[in-house]
Design a protein that fits this description.
This protein has 452 residues and is an alpha/beta fold. It contains 13 helices and 19 strands. Residues 274-291, 293-298, 301-313 and 447-452 have low confidence and may be disordered. The structure holds S-adenosylmethionine (SAM). S-adenosylmethionine is lined by residues 53-54, 75-77, 86-87, 349, 352-354, 377, 379-380, 382, 397-400.
Length: 452
């Protein structure tokens, strides 16, 4: 009998333990920065900007922050072998895995039980990183693997001489610590019409839809509400969209736009085909259901108290207007990576800076105002800038000198309210708050064998 062998990724030096000299974080008050005005009583001043190696800094944070961070986003060097302008990305494969293992272990300690970690990565290390994170966080805590479009199909990248397919996407691996997450991303506009919406309500005004909508949205529906719904819909008639276009001479070229503009009078009826047929033929059922009767059929409103107790047949009426937006799911194609992203925050950081919109989606879907957000590979400071504008507390760690040339100037503009790019307009950012600046205290050892 052979013993059970666990599935694991190995690499040269995996067994080697990293010995760390614990260091403390020292605030340098003259570099800490605060707005000289109060924008609201929710301004946050306790954010942390840490200059130094993130492994030592994360260890130092554990005392105060273990189990307190609600959202971690990191965008570590992808180990692509290319020499980027601001940091050396050419670490040898095993070394990269060792560095990531040590940091992810510390990050897990900092994460709240109901927190989430998001790690952005490209093809080079994605598969290895997944196995590594399965080991550290446990496979059952893997929440999602998001694919995010990071390049446009046109542009310089497409003119390359490499014969492989152009690389357009990256990944964001999402893990939880313990508790199941409730992810509530902002809905995004539908790019393409859903052809299931193919029935037009005739004799139906936008005003009628708005009145009906108010009734549908009500938490509890009274008999009066049902009667009001019925009265509204009873005056309407149903027609297939193709017949409508034919009769009204809507040119083919205008039809898509017409659908988006008239979504308040376009519906789909959801149910099995036999149920739908029945619904058209049967007289209204004498039941206290939120039933709506039009001249050509019985339409039942969805999402109501009465619906649940309704007798069959039941048909849901879905208005296209309610479906003009959709959940982005795990395939994010809609975030613009060109057209001004390079200028966001007023600092240039080629090949590394992520769009503010991307961080807004991540932070927005799993945190509330006042929660802690951490990025230990700050780069140009996108995570902190977005967290700050969204009223979240943040911690950023950056080892490179661009901590001073990029992140700090960027955060000062955010705090002063002069950064009106990125998500500022969307969140009506006016400035305020501040941050404390820290360095790692010098080594106590005479000779630092870890090179710190
Ligand atoms: C891809 S960039 C992050 C870009 C960032 N997401 C943005 O939007 O600007 C990775 C950053 O990690 C930093 N970094 C790499 N190793 C580090 C370490 N050991 N400690 C702290 N920062 C580190 C690099 O200096 C670089 O700025």
């Amino acid at each position: 009998m052979t013993g059970m062998t666990k599935l694991e990724l190995t690499w040269i030096g995996k067994d080697r333990e990293t010995k760390l000299e614990s260091r403390i974080l020292l605030e340098e008050r003259d570099i800490s920065y605060y707005a000289n005005f109060r924008a609201s009583d929710r301004d946050l001043f306790d954010n942390r900007m840490i200059f130094g190696d993130n492994l030592l800094a994360l260890k130092a944070l554990e005392q105060e922050f273990a189990g307190k961070i609600k959202c971690i986003y990191i965008d570590p060097p992808y180990n692509t072998g290319s020499a980027f302008e601001h940091y050396d990305d050419g670490l040898e494969h095993s070394k990269w895995l060792g560095l990531m293992r040590d940091r992810l272990t510390c990050l897990r300690n900092l994460l709240a039980d109901d927190g989430l970690i998001f790690v952005q990565i490209d093809d080079n290390e994605m598969a290895y990183l997944t196995l590594l994170m399965d080991e550290i966080f446990h496979r059952s805590n893997r929440v999602n693997t998001i694919v995010v479009k990071m390049s446009e199909v046109s542009g310089v990248k497409m003119a390359h001489t490499d014969k492989r397919l152009p690389k357009l996407k990256e990944y964001i691996l999402v893990y939880k610590k313990k508790e199941n997450p409730v992810l509530t991303p902002d809905s995004i506009p539908l790019e393409k019409w859903n052809d299931e919406y193919k029935t037009v309500l005739l004799n139906w005004e936008k005003d009628d839809f708005e009145r009906l909508d108010r009734l549908i949205q009500k938490e509890t529906v009274t008999q009066e509400d049902v009667a009001a719904c019925n009265e509204l819909l009873n005056k309407s008639r149903l027609q297939s969209m193709s017949a409508y276009f034919r009769e009204n001479g809507v040119p083919a070229a205008d039809q898509v736009q017409w659908k988006f503009d008239n979504a308040w009078r376009i519906i789909q009826a959801v149910g099995s085909s036999s149920v739908l047929k029945l619904a058209k033929e049967q007289p209204p059922i004498d039941q206290p259901v939120a039933g709506l009767r039009s001249s050509t059929g019985i339409l039942y409103l969805y999402n109501t108290e009465f619906d649940r107790s309704a007798r069959q047949p039941r048909v849901q009426v879905l208005f296209a207007q309610h479906n003009l937006f959709r959940n982005p799911g795990d395939l994010w194609m809609d975030i613009k990576t060109t057209g001004g992203v390079g200028q966001e925050g007023g600092v240039l950081f080629p090949n590394g800076k992520k769009p503010e919109k991307l961080l807004q989606r991540i932070i927005g879907m799993c945190t509330r105002e006042g929660d802690w957000v951490l990025d230990s590979f700050a780069g140009s400071g996108t995570t902190g800038a977005v967290a700050h504008k969204m009223g979240r507390r943040w911690i950023m760690i950056e080892l490179g000198e661009h901590c001073h040339t990029h992140v700090i100037p960027r955060m000062k503009q955010v705090i002063d309210g002069t950064d009106q790019g990125g998500i500022s307009k969307a969140v009506q950012w006016k400035g305020g708050g501040g941050y404390r600046y820290y360095r790692l205290a010098p080594s106590m050892l005479e000779k630092d064998k870890f090179g710190q």
